[in-house]
């Protein structure tokens, strides 16, 4: 039998419909096999023969004899024979004899076959209950995973053994494609794979934020929770995947706004304070030059005085964009003060003079075309960290500022 109901169907053979209904109602009503009725006084072998007048109420339904002739020295219609079904000394059921066909009282010899049947019935009932429990848990698991808002993977031996619909949707693969991806962690960003591999190899429970790679190449941010389990009687890892892309993007946008100057769109001084020490330490570690370039807009006060602050803001935005266009992608520009820009130039040393000349030229040309009556220009000073000098950050800033004002002082119009 493959379920408890089939075992019960087999056990009910030979009963009338009313008798079978009585037993099923007893079970449905919470009736259980109670151990107290197996009194050692009535024990016969591994069975219990309870004579008329001693049968406890807790036995459950009783059925009258169907025999036409009763042996006065044999089985009494109120007698009862109970054969417990045992698994590891635990009673999981019983065989109840209300009316033996031969009408004779039981003997140890006549009980052997019945006790063997009880042993087999106990095994069948126990296995049926286990299968039924597993089936119920499987149905519950399937219901929960298929209706979950999160993706679910079960991974084992480097492969995906199970993926629910949400996981398939998250990664954009077909149900047939996902199990073919081996190892499964190739679905995640290369920089994030090490902890995933360790969790899989060691079946580690845990939680982390990671980046998934969809079939179309897009990145999806995921909160991943792992839990060790058995799948197909082998160790496996269950992964719960929550899409947090919107949250990460919102946090990135907020951080970006916190680090950006609202007028020019350049990085602000807060960003400089947060990142400059890291950049300096990187140069120190790899012994590579690192330059701070300080700039100031010459004549910008005249722009505000003659054209107004609104026009001054627009000109400041345009000059900031102009400066940004002259530097490398690895460089960054900070709005350091009102009309002061600080340019960070990693791994730049002797090439700084060429950049300074280019900045002076493009700003002069732009100003001549855009505001010819003002005479806007740019003054520049810089300082470079080298392994030989190993200057501190504060000293680098002082030198860059001093060099800028030195250049400003060489031109009477500044």
Give a structural overview.
The protein is of the alpha+beta class and about 425 residues long. It folds into 3 domains: about 5-130, Beta-Lactamase (2-Layer Sandwich); about 150-245, PAS domain (Beta-Lactamase); about 260-410, 2-Layer Sandwich (Alpha-Beta Plaits), CATH 3.30.70. Helices cover about 40% and strands about 20% of the residues. It contains 11 helices and 13 strands. Strands 6-5-9-8-7 form a 5-stranded antiparallel β-sheet. β1 and β2 (about 45-50) form a beta hairpin. α1 (about 5-10) packs antiparallel against α3 (about 110-145). The longest helix is centred in the first third of the chain and has 39 residues, at about 110-145. The model has no long low-confidence stretch (mean pLDDT about 80).
Q: Characteristics of this structure?
A:
13 strands; 414 residues; Beta-Lactamase; alpha+beta; 3 domains; four-stranded antiparallel sheet; Alpha-Beta Plaits; five-stranded antiparallel sheet; 41% helix; single chain
């Amino acid at each position: 039998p493959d379920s408890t109901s089939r075992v019960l169907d087999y056990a009910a053979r030979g009963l009338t419909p009313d008798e079978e209904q009585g037993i099923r109602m007893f079970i449905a009503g919470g009736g259980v096999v109670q151990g107290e009725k197996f009194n050692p006084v009535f024990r016969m072998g591994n069975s219990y023969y309870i004579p008329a007048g001693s049968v406890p109420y807790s036995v459950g339904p009783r059925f009258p004899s169907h025999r036409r002739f009763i042996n006065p020295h044999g089985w009494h219609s109120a007698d009862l024979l109970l054969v417990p079904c045992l698994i590891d000394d635990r009673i999981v059921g019983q065989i109840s004899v209300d009316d033996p066909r031969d009408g004779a009282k039981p003997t140890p010899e006549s009980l052997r076959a019945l006790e063997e049947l009880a042993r087999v019935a106990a095994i069948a009932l126990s296995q049926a209950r286990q299968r039924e429990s597993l089936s119920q848990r499987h149905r519950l698991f399937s219901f929960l995973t298929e209706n979950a808002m999160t993706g679910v993977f079960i991974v084992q031996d480097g492969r995906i053994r199970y993926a629910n619909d949400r996981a398939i949707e998250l990664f954009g693969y077909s149900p047939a494609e996902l199990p073919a991806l081996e190892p499964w962690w190739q679905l995640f960003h290369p920089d994030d794979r090490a902890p995933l591999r360790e969790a899989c190899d060691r079946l580690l429970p845990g939680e982390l934020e990671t980046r998934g790679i969809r079939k179309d190449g897009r990145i999806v941010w995921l909160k991943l929770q792992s839990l060790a389990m058995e799948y197909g009687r082998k160790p496996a890892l269950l992964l719960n995947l929550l899409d947090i892309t919107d949250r990460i993007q919102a946090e990135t946008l907020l951080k970006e706004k916190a680090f950006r100057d609202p007028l020019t769109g350049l990085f602000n001084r807060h960003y400089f304070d947060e990142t400059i020490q890291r950049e300096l330490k990187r140069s120190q570690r790899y012994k590579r030059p690192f330059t701070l370039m300080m700039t100031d807009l010459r004549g910008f006060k005249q722009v505000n005085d003659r054209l107004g602050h609104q026009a001054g803001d627009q000109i400041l935005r345009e000059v900031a964009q102009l400066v940004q266009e002259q530097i490398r992608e690895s460089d960054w520009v900070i709005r350091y003060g009102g009309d002061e820009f600080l340019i960070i130039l990693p791994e730049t040393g002797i090439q700084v003079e060429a950049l300074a000349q280019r900045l002076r030229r493009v700003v002069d040309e732009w100003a001549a075309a855009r505001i010819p009556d003002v005479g806007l220009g740019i003054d520049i000073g810089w300082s470079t960290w080298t392994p030989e000098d190993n200057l501190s950050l504060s000293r680098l800033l002082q030198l860059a500022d001093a060099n800028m004002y030195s250049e400003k002082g060489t031109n009477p119009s500044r």
